[in-house]
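sry for the spam today, last one i promise. struct tokens for design, 192 residues
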């Protein structure tokens, strides 16, 4: 029987959410070209994959105390909601509220940079889909801390293990949890 991590890595392949093109490659947010692309938005469109992400994240966070979770729009929204819903169903002691960090303040409505149910002093877990350089995750950490959230943990679905992303995050006193690494996805691809 495959472990939950192996099942999640396989789900990336089954949902075509892990793409490989050695010739053309894929342009990353950093501007660099990579031979592979990790598409967590496509992955999170599938209910079984969401269940695996939620279960693995829930298990990884059992010893972490936090009140809310969220991250930068757009990728963090389904991740935070999926984990929160799973936790609530699994244990009524784990009522984690969710929030989203906007990329920029709206010029109408309440004009907030963070939307959701948060209070200054809340302990927050920052979530993101993929870690490369750590830039988007650190932006969410910075904004969360500016509004008074206490952030010392972050969770990503996949750590690409490049551009010194993990070290950059941990230099900001944030412990990083990754459900999978690029090595996990590559190993599953080789088996397929």
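last one done:
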């Amino acid at each position: 029987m495959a472990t939950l991590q192996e099942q999640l890595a396989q789900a990336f392949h089954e949902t075509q959410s892990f793409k490989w093109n050695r010739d053309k490659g894929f342009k990353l947010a950093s501007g660099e070209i990579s031979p592979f692309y990790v598409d967590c938005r496509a992955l999170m469109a599938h209910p079984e994959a969401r269940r695996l992400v939620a279960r693995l994240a829930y298990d990884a966070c059992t010893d972490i105390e936090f009140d809310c979770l969220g991250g930068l729009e757009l990728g963090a929204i389904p991740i935070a909601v999926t984990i929160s819903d799973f936790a609530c169903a699994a244990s009524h002691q784990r009522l984690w509220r969710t929030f989203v960090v906007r990329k920029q303040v709206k010029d109408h409505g309440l004009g907030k940079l963070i939307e959701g149910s948060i209070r200054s002093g809340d302990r927050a877990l920052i979530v993101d889909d993929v870690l490369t350089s750590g830039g988007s995750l650190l932006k969410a950490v910075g904004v969360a801390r500016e509004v008074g959230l206490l952030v010392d943990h972050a969770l990503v679905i996949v750590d690409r293990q490049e551009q010194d992303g993990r070290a950059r995050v941990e230099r900001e006193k944030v412990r990083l949890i990754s459900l999978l690494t690029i090595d996990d996805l590559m190993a599953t691809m080789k088996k397929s």
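The CA atoms of residues 54 and 86 lie 6 Å apart. ok im logging off now
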